Amino acid sequence: MSFAGLMVVAFGIDALLGWPAGLFARIRHPVVWLGTLIAALETRLNGGAPLRRRAAGALTAVVVLTAALLPALLVQAALPAGWIGIVLGGVCAWPLLAVRSMHDHVAAVARPLAAGNLPAARRAVAMIVGRDPERLDEAGLARAALESLAENSSDGIVAPLFWGLIGGLPGIAAYKAVNTMDSMIGHRNARYEDFGKAAARLDDLVNLIPARLTGLLFALASGRMRTALRVMARDAAQHRSPNAGWPEAALAGALPARLSGPRAYGDRVSEEPWVNGGAPDPGPQTLWRGLALYRRTMALCALILLGLALI
């Protein structure tokens, strides 16, 4: 079976439809199903001494990965040969991409921000970032949305496609399981530091190549390739994340804008270094330029997938 063809179908459906609200209301979403399992395991197993928490977290990772992989393996094995199997497989992979929803979530921040409606922009940005939106001014809101756009272009699109190209439905399903675990329990705080360590390490590993590919794709689609690549090479390693800095730095260099920097999480302020610190702060127009670059990058992804499918 052509895994590239399968990813072309999934990408095309998601770019056109996203995940419709009516469908979400009826069956929710596969990531929500995984999240329910992760939350149940965490509630039951996350307790005791640090070593016990780490072991329980590793067991949780095995259980969740198995729960994602087994159905995907069975479905892929049952798919018919030829284009019918590719289309059916693409439909199954469709919910595991976030091409349309990523654009829609960031546009939902850009519209009220451009209109000067900071309260509405704060409500929208709270849907996609973990920091306290009440402390964010116009530049902070634009920065938070752009950072989410950069990181989630990797986590929500390029990385699932990468693992889908390698492993088909099992590859993309396993990736989403790891990424969902990291987003829920891979935090460095008292509750999750030990329990989520296995999930966080797995997520770092599976995003190692896709994050760098995403940065390269942003640079190629930007029209400012040399500048984007220079900023990425210089600033990516300074980021708090071993992977998120690559697409973020490429986006910062392409726009240009300064991203990252200090941010507030609840009552804690995290002093992070700036990415592309010599550039101006972003504003509403920077956010619209970021979305335009995102669309060009997704078009480039689609062309690459088509090329791979035709080989």
Description:
The chain has 311 residues and is mostly helical. It has one domain (3-310). 72% of the residues lie in helices and 3% in strands. The strands form two sheets. The protein has a two-stranded antiparallel ribbon. It has a two-stranded antiparallel sheet with strand order 2-3. The longest helix has 48 residues, at 138-185.
**Percent in helix:** over 70%
- Tell me the total number of β-strands: 4
Strand order of the largest sheet: 1-4
Low-confidence stretches: none
What does the overall shape look like? globular
Mind telling me the C-alpha Rg? 19 Å
Report the β-strand fraction as a percent range.
under 5%
Work out the count of structural domains: 1
If helices are DSSP runs of H or I spanning 4 or more residues, what is the number of helices?
A: 13
The structural class is mainly alpha
End-to-end separation in angstroms reads 13 Å
**Oligomerization state:** single chain
Averaged pLDDT: 95
> What does the main sheet amount to?
2 strands, antiparallel
H-E string: HHHHHHHHHHHHEEEEH
